[in-house]
């Protein structure tokens, strides 16, 4: 991507044939500046790629020792693990962390990416919102050489640093395990298939079905926002199916545990009537009854690696090539919720 010089108020003033002091006051929303002039100033600033600076008296090369982090939600065990890993690395390197949550909305992600830029973060770590369609709102980071790294939820683009796991393999391993337990009809409760993590887990699920000659049935794939309410609704839908599945693979643990509770309240035995597996190895998976089969997803390690690599970029300890993808290992943890064959080994 093309990089440009840093745009200053003098460049804007020259473009608009205004005094630099007028441009400065306009950018600060000073009421002394005519509203029409103010609009021209803001329009030109945005068009030219001016980097708004809330620390305007700082020199261009002065660091804030702050790393921005944008995540979908804060009320997630997995996201908390990622943030804990990031914070440990940043604190050890003398950096502060500025956190925003997009609440799964691209519009919020765009807003916070711009806010982080204006607050002069030295780098940015992003876990994408559920409905983010492209990465255009991060172009200014590239233009201004501000290190950028995506963690867990990413867009398949080789121009950016990423830290991920092999979600396709993990989805394949879970589904293969359920098939090995004798399950013939496996439903899959997933999140937004716009995101790589859920699309890849679904791909692994489909691959395992195909390898074991089990027909893929579209009606068994339920796409939700993975909230408590949507999990309850999905479980109730499954209970009402004419040909009810004998297993359920859920893309996160909380939704899996909620589904399990709905099934148990309806009189189903877990795993005899319905084998269940989740994803993430949240604390909910270890306190459910029965304990939940899941995938150990190394959130804290993921956060540490993301922060460590971003710090290297900020400090110029990398060659700057934005093509680095780190793939962490995940592990299938087999517990009682999926064990129809009781002799199989339990991994606690």
Protein described:
The chain is α/β, with parallel strands linked by helices and 348 residues long. The protein folds into three domains: 9-48, no CATH class; 66-165 and 299-329, Rossmann fold (3-Layer(aba) Sandwich); 167-297 and 332-338, Rossmann fold (3-Layer(aba) Sandwich). 40% of the residues lie in helices and 14% in strands. The chain has twelve helices and twelve strands. The chain has helices at 9-16, 20-27, 35-48, 77-92, 106-118, 139-143, 167-180, 196-211, 228-239, 253-265, 283-287, 299-314; strands at residues 66-71, 96-101, 123-126, 148-151, 161-165, 186-190, 221-223, 247-250, 275-277, 294-296, 325-328, 331-333. Strands 2-1-3-4-5-11 form a six-stranded parallel beta sheet, sandwiched between helices. Strands 7-6-8-9 form a four-stranded parallel beta sheet, with helices on both faces. Strand 3, helix 6 and strand 4 (148-151) form a beta-alpha-beta unit. Helix 4 (77-92) packs parallel to helix 12 (299-314), helix 7 (167-180) packs parallel to helix 8 (196-211) and helix 9 (228-239) packs across helix 10. The longest helix is centred in the N-terminal third of the chain and has 16 residues, at 77-92. The radius of gyration is 24 Å and the shape is elongated. The two termini are 47 Å apart. Mean pLDDT is 90; it is low at 54-61.
